[in-house]
Design brief:
18 helices, disordered N terminus
Length: about 600
């Protein structure tokens, strides 16, 4: 649920001369955006005009609940904006003259020679990109569709995605409750590419270029500021974000606590998206990159920094100016699988974890897991439902079959996810990272009973061979239950919107018949219209895909790649969907699924 809207934001919702058919939608949308506001309403022959007066002040940190039972979420992930798109065509040691020209066309427009630094206004960045595309419409940044290996997301693809989202929510007649961003704002190899081209930027000072740590950090900060600002131009609502493995000053999988990145990013998220409900949660983010959002009575978001659990982070050799932390993990006191049957022990463990501190008295990255367990225990004690939001998901990579997390961290997460007491409070895990529209089923240690699910977002970045995509969720705010969702995608330069077809089929339309058939008349979903996106539905969908009932694998491939492919390698997908560690459900098909050959597709760096 979004935080309360400001007075100016509510005033901007004033509506005039709308047709009668849209008047009710407009008024309802206003009431959802600004609950408690007083309206002076004038009905005319042409429609409805509404002028909001100041709404009563809400208690600081308290979320506002939508008056409706259903609401929507703008779900966007893995933009990987690449200001260097088209520059690094060869990744050679020395950029070619053509590459230098391509890159400096962009960078020079973003540099302010008067201040001798990068432009600090996101609107100035927007103007620089627009001016570039006006002067040089054939520039790589201005291409309408990018599916190449020559970069990540260029300006035009990002711009078109945001315009599609803006149009979609206008056509729906209401703004979403909030934006949910599941990581990776920055393009791959961001620091490498910056260092390749910074020396070619004219700064206005003789003998001085744009290289150096201070200007590198500023460029990263301004890129994040621009991305979040531009997303807000489409949906002017609160946004909640987790950081991805590429989001750091130091490089890929090199996020640090003491280089100022988290504090500066917190300032950006607070200014553009009002991400933090109070100073305490902002302070936790500034120390470790994670935080809690209380969504109202009975619901909360727990937003994690899971990059630190990955094998690549554990094995990373950090830059000289980014020394590797001395200690990354300390799980010895958390005892996830123990001490949960006795209420007194649960209470003691919860209190210990939720107030856990380092010797310096601060919450650090290596206490995040304990914080998470404490929050889940607290949510369970208060009968609350939780969405756990992260970038890198637990479980297996469908590209390689490898675990995303390091072995010990995978085991700890498997113990947490497989704990029935804690799982009862988790409404779902929402992640990004793979760039495809995937799901995973969380199982108990025996592998049969499903305890939860992980839903992965497609990415705006199309470098993994799929169409650039975002999603719109419909959900029940009180239950944190996803009722349905739609995927909107870039089809060769033309983005789908709500009015021109809604992108791919909705979850219910794509999978409803297969899930209902597996459920049967006595099951939880006797009709497709009964289906919601929960653990039971996704477990039934996995069973249907295992047996390929109704060509469900073909439909999944279309969703997975956002319509770009009709086939998937089931031997790759099955273990990624069916397990978090080694808890793989046995096939229910007859005859059973034949043994799979070793995985051949190499893992890619996401």
């Amino acid at each position: 649920m979004r935080e309360k809207a400001g007075k100016q934001e509510c005033s901007n919702w004033a509506v005039s001369t709308l047709g009668r058919a849209r008047a009710t939608e407009a008024l309802w949308g206003f009431l959802r955006l600004c609950p408690g506001a007083l309206l002076a309403v004038s009905l005319t022959a042409g429609g409805l005009a509404a002028w909001p007066q100041a709404a009563p002040m809400q208690e600081k940190g308290q979320a506002v609940r939508s008056p409706s039972q259903t609401a929507s979420i703008f779900r966007i992930s893995d933009v990987h904006l690449d200001p260097f798109y088209g520059c690094h065509l060869t990744y050679s040691g020395t950029p070619s003259p053509a590459e230098v020209t391509t890159c400096t066309d962009v960078l020079q427009g973003l540099f302010d020679q008067q201040s001798h630094g990068w432009k600090t206004s996101p609107s100035a960045w927007e103007q620089a990109f627009q001016d570039l595309c006006s002067r040089k419409p054939a520039h790589p940044q201005c291409e309408a569709a990018t599916y190449s290996s020559e970069g990540d997301t260029n300006y035009q693809v990002f711009h078109n995605a945001i315009e599609s989202a803006r149009t979609t929510f206008m056509q729906r007649g209401s703004q979403p409750d909030f934006t949910l961003y599941t990581g990776d704002f920055l393009g791959h190899d961001f620091d490498h590419n910056y260092n390749e081209y910074c020396s070619h930027v004219k700064t206005g000072v003789a003998g001085q270029d744009a290289c150096g740590l201070a200007l590198t950090k500023q460029f990263i900060d301004q890129t994040l500021d621009y991305i979040t600002w531009k997303i807000k131009q489409a949906v002017n609502v609160t946004g909640y974000a987790t950081l991805g493995n590429n989001d750091a000053y130091c490089g890929d999988y090199e996020i640090m606590t003491d280089q100022g990145f988290l504090k500066k990013t917190a300032s950006t998220l607070a200014a553009n998206w009002s991400s933090f409900p109070n100073a305490a949660q902002r302070g936790i983010f500034e120390k470790g990159g994670y935080y809690r959002v209380q969504m109202g009575p009975g619901a909360r978001l727990l937003i994690l920094n899971t990059t630190i659990y990955t094998e690549k982070y554990v094995q990373q050799s950090f830059h000289d100016y980014c020394p590797k932390p001395a200690s990354l993990f300390d799980y010895s006191t958390f005892a996830v699988a123990n001490d949960l049957s006795d209420p007194a022990k649960r209470s003691s463990l919860k209190n210990k974890l939720m107030t856990g501190t380092s010797p310096q008295g601060n919450v650090w990255m290596d206490t995040q897991f304990g914080w998470l367990v404490g929050e889940l225990l607290d949510a369970r004690a208060n009968n609350e439902q939780v969405w756990v939001v992260a970038h890198v998901p637990p479980g297996r990579d469908p590209y390689s079959g490898d675990l995303f997390f390091a072995r010990s961290q995978s085991q700890d997460f498997a113990a947490l996810l497989g704990n029935a007491y804690l799982a009862s409070s988790i409404a779902g895990y929402l992640c990004g990272h793979t760039h495809e529209s995937e799901f995973k089923v969380v199982r108990e240690s025996g592998g049969q009973s499903a305890l939860g699910f992980v839903l992965l977002a497609p990415g705006i970045d199309g470098d993994h061979g799929h169409n650039s995509s975002y999603q719109v969720f419909e959900y029940d705010p009180a239950k944190l239950e996803i009722l349905n969702y739609w995927t909107f995608y870039d089809n060769g330069g033309t983005w789908t919107t709500w009015k021109n077809g809604g992108g791919l089929k909705s979850f219910r339309d794509a999978y409803g018949a297969a899930i209902a058939a597996r459920s049967g008349s006595s099951g939880p979903f006797p009709k497709p219209s009964d289906i919601v996106v929960n653990t039971q539905a996704l477990d039934l969908l996995f069973q249907a895909m295992d047996c390929d009932s109704g060509n469900t694998r073909t439909e999944y491939a279309r969703q997975y790649y956002s319509l770009k492919s009709d086939s998937i390698n089931w031997c790759q997908q099955r273990p990624a969907i069916a397990s978090i560690l080694n808890h793989v459900k046995q096939s229910s098909c007859s005859p059973s699924v034949p043994p799979c050959q070793p995985l051949l597709r190499p893992s890619s760096d996401k």
